[in-house]
Amino acid sequence: MISIWKTIGGKMQRIEQVEENCWINMVDPDETEISDIAKSVGVEQDLIRAALDEEEVSYVYTTDEGSTLITIDVPIVDSCCKEYSTTPMGIIFVGTRIITVCIKESAVISKFENSPPKKLSTMDTAEFMLMLIYGVADQYIEYLRHINRMAGDIEERLYKSQRNREVVELLGLQKSLVFFSTSLKANLVTLEKVTRIKTFKINEDDSEMLGDVLIEVRQAIEMSTIFTDILSGTMDAYASIVSNNLNTIMKALTVITLILTIPTMVFSYYGMNLEPLSMLPFNNIGWFPLFLSIVMMVAIGLYFKAFHFSKKR
Q: What CATH fold (topology level) applies to the domain 2-242?
């Protein structure tokens, strides 16, 4: 899918054909679309295809013809299963034209198309790139807050139910945080490389925006690190709770096993037909072994309840 946008009269408007100072957005384009755009703007097709590799890392590449490809990781979310991950997005600068290429739809691009920032303009490629990366960092922060709220809800359910489902959900969030943290750090390195590209002329206003972008990216990195540590601590605490519960259960089973062995021992002694054992007390009363077993079981049960299970854990 291809959409072409241009700032006309201070507003972002969609146009039909490629023009100077326009923004071309490509989402999972096919070979025909890649070929048409490559011919229209005069760029190599491989430069467009490079951003369609889901395993592509964040980097900056400049061709001999002067075109520049900036690949960054953008956050995405699967609306069906609420899984957060990242995917590469390419930003290609060919003269006065800007091309964004992504294999999946991104919330950042959707915001730029549906409700673009007031200062967004396709006339300034450096400013457009900085505002786009700022939007990506802001989207990371928004998703990180969602993940933190989801983790809090799961923790409340986990302490009550202690089912495997909640543990799996926490592991999924932990994996998402790892993706976010790794991608954000790579984006920060790429952004620092972008500032050294000669083809971009950073003026005073762009320098201030660059500082804001760097602050936003570093804030997102810090948030992902904090949330990862919190989630790891929660998982460790849950593992300790499971271990303590298991110890309590094993302790109770041991006591039950001990109590249940008492009738076996008593009836074994009274059931032996041996001369020394015939001197056992009340050997001639048939119900006495049962009575003795019950008394001993109750006594041992009360003992463990009073001196072991009643202690505060």
A: Beta Polymerase; domain 2 (3.30.460)
